[in-house]
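Open question from group meeting: does this chain pack into something compact, or does most of it stay loose? Before anyone orders reagents, we agreed to write out a predicted structure and look at it together. Recording both the input and the output here so the notebook holds the full record.
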Amino acid sequence: MATPVQDNLVRKNAQYASNFTDGSLELPPAKRYAVVTCMDARIDPAAAFGIPLGDAHVIRNAGGNARDALRSLVISELLLGTEEILLVKHTDCGMLTFTNEDAHAVVKQTLGNDGQKELEGLDFQPFPDLEQGVNDDVQFLKDSRAIPDTVTVSGW
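Structure tokens returned:
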């Protein structure tokens, strides 16, 4: 049995698909850039950054984390021809509010020893300072051998 959230998703997708007229857009992004940003539900990257459909890859994860985004960035850059990466973090990010130790304690408390064992050693990659978090991730991408030197990397 589907949940109300699933029912809504299916219904809204059917509406979207029935009115979709941009199927002729090329697979590679038209403006040849990728944005890495946070998965925070309060952020609509297309609206917040003025990205029309088809112009860019938007890669979202907890904290707009470059390390988590690396696989997608390699695909974006090497297979789909993007030439620029913009990393955008934001104020009031949840990743500013906890440490790895806090996250592991919640995992153990909520999921027990099996859950803790499966995630043992996982770096949740929180960051205590927003600006430093941006700088660290930009430097990670610039230093990565998986991102060509010809790719422009910037961050906010």
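Observations to bring back to the group:
The helical segments are 4-19, 45-49, 66-79, 100-118, 130-143.
The mean pLDDT is 97.
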